[in-house]
Every structure is written in C-alpha cells, then in structure tokens.
Amino acid sequence: MKAWPIWKSVLTNSIWHSETLTLPAQRRGFHLITDDIIAALPQINTLKVGLLHLWLKHTSAGLTINENADPSVRTDLEAWFNHTVKEDTPYFTHTFEGSDDMPAHIKSSLLGCEVTIPIADGKLQLGTWQGIILAEHRDNGGERSIIATLNGCQR
Amino acid sequence: MKAWPIWKSVLTNSIWHSETLTLPAQRRGFHLITDDIIAALPQINTLKVGLLHLWLKHTSAGLTINENADPSVRTDLEAWFNHTVKEDTPYFTHTFEGSDDMPAHIKSSLLGCEVTIPIADGKLQLGTWQGIILAEHRDNGGERSIIATLNGCQR
Amino acid sequence: MKAWPIWKSVLTNSIWHSETLTLPAQRRGFHLITDDIIAALPQINTLKVGLLHLWLKHTSAGLTINENADPSVRTDLEAWFNHTVKEDTPYFTHTFEGSDDMPAHIKSSLLGCEVTIPIADGKLQLGTWQGIILAEHRDNGGERSIIATLNGCQR
C-alpha cells in the first residue's frame, strides 16, 4: 500500500464550530445537498486538517454519500429502496402514521443519519464523484434540520 | 437554506475522555439505550461543543438511531431485518455457530457498529424522536461492550 | 450498566494528522485491510486517546467492520449482497457503465464509505473479532484511495 502524508502531525489548539442548518422541504427521493452544505459553512475554509460531522435530527430520512453526476443513480437508489422496503409489508404494525412511515424508519437505519467528511487545505476531501445526499423517505417530510459540527486545526 | 450558529468558532484546548461501557445481556431485538449512555457519561455535561463517539466491539450486533417513542417501530425493525436476512438462506457457508450467526454478521454491517452524536451546551443534540438503539442480532448475545470517546471544548 | 474510565478527562492540545492511502486493485468481494491500515499509520501509537477516521473516496465500494477470522463470513457477505442487490434488476436505468455499476452504488450506500475507530493507549480499540474490511463492489474497481485522519491527545 502506498501512503503519503497530506500533513505531518500537528500538535495544536483545535477549532470547534457548531451550527444548525435547516433544509427546505423536498419531495420523497435522493437529493444532492453538497453545494448547500459548503455554502452554509465558510468556516471549512479556515481549517488545515479537520472533520465535518453532519447529523440529521430525524428518523424518517437519512444522509448518504453517492454519485454526484448522473441523476439516474439517485433515481435508481430511490427505486431500489422502495422495492426492498415495501409500503404494503403485511407484518408491519407501526402503520397509523401512513404507509410511508415504517418504511421510512427502516431506510433511515439502513442509510444512517450522519456523515463525517475529512477536511484538508480548507476543503472537503470528497472524491471526484462523491456528493452529499439527503434521502427523504416521507411523502411529506417537511423541513429537515442538520447539526453541523466542525473540528480541526487552523490553516 | 437557513443557517444559524449555535456557537461561533472557538480556538481552544480540547477535552478527551475514553470509557468502556458494558451493557447487560439483552434478548434478540432492538433496544433503546439512550438513558443508559447519558447516565454513564456525566462528562457530556462539561462540553460546550463536542462529539460523542460510540463503538460496539462486536460483529453480531449493531448500533443505530431510530424512533425513541412507539415500541412498534423497534418491533417492525426486528421483523423486517429477520425477513430480509433469513436464517435459512441456502447458500450460507458460515453456519457452524448457529443459524442466527451469519444473519447477525450481515445485519451488523448493514446497521454499523458505531454512532457519532453531536454535543452542544452540555447535551447530546438528538432530535425529538431520536434514540440510541442497540440492535442485538444473536439469540444469546451476552454482555456487549461499547467504547465511548468524548471530544470537545469546555463550557 | 457497568462503566469504567480508560482515562479520566484530559484538557490538552490535540494532534491532527491527515494522510492519503492507496489500496492496490482487489477482485470483487470483501477484503480484510486492518493490518495494512495499521502498518501505514505508525502515528496511531503516539496517541493516548483519539479517533481514526477512514474515508473511501469512491461511490462503488465501501468500508465496513466485520469478522476478522473465518473467511467464510466474507464469502457469505459477498453472496448475500449479490443476491439482495441483483445485477439484472429490470427497473435500473443507470446501466451504461456495466451491470455491476448500479448495484455497486447501492451497496456503497448500504455499507457506507467511512469508519471511525477509537484509539486508546496507542492502539486501535477493535474488538477481538473485528476487522476493517474493504468491500469492492466492481468487477474491475482498480486502485482505491482512503483519506486517514487522526485526531487525539499525546501519550
């Protein structure tokens, strides 16, 4: 395995920054939010090395990383999850909030509600094809809140 | 997207705290452990901004975030995972530890063995409906160990 | 729940270290990379308490934690994911990069592209049976890049 340092080890004070981001209501499906996150957090640019932690405060939606280019990837993700976690599953008992509710809870645990993204040289270190995706699993999920926590050392 | 800071950026020393938590044996299923985690870690209250990382040291159980209120959500999660990752899957070869073992390994990778939860103002920033859940996938899993790592800046 | 501190809380400067690791091309399947990661990051040994964050910069492979001993677990993981996310799924529209491409994207979101592993006393705190696994979902995935970010306090 080849390895090369982006930076040698640094012993230093850390920067901590915490922010609540509110995403507008989106239709059910997989939505790219990379540009929105970066625009809301100019503090990313102040970090030499660090981590951005994003936490969605909900149990019927999720955060995931996937392709940022061809929208057909997001369409097929939505289709696969709908076929795999079916709304009419006969053994579901948690049904009083609508047929899309229990599937939304299961999808949320499958995808998770958080991502932690490395920062180096003032930028998120996403791969060329990686985007941050909000997976909205409810038909009418409404606004969604994300807590963004930044931690790192100064440039 | 609306954004407002919980705190402006802070440049400071960090607090590090590491602890091993042992959960008593639980029956197979999804179990809320939020209150146990908070009670075991009074140091959360000392942090202005920070992160709590929980790591389950096992490969046949998992940690996930889901609804903390109606227990039918946890019942349906257990049912869905049992239907989707079946014990009698004919092509499984790793069967000598019991029919619940290989499904437990698969569920563990699907849910993951870790969560990182944001802290602000001395409290975990879980959403209103979010709880920390131990997903026990073995019929007789026994005690489970979690490593809790706290990192943040002082209040 | 029993709890005992590995270390009492420490208020201190933090170490930050960032590195890009390149994994050689692997065949499709689940591959243990624990020893490669540890060998590439001797800085782990300098930390009293900390976290190692690993980020795979790709959307058609993943990182997961699972059993490090019996290789039949990894064989069955690969078989289950192939049966559950089928290459010939008729409703897939993202098919021009090959029949293994869209399933690879879905598996990547199911497993995730990151892990954060606790460090104490200079060592990764993996459980006895836990290993770090690269899940290669493409038939010809080629080299894969991981960004390793270390953060912690000095021993």
UniProtKB/TrEMBL annotation, chains A, B, C:
Gene3D superfamilies: YjbQ-like. It holds the Pfam family YjbQ. It comes from the Bacteria. Belongs to the UPF0047 family. This is YjbQ family protein. It comes from Salinimonas marina. The lineage of its organism: Bacteria, Pseudomonadati, Pseudomonadota, Gammaproteobacteria, Alteromonadales.
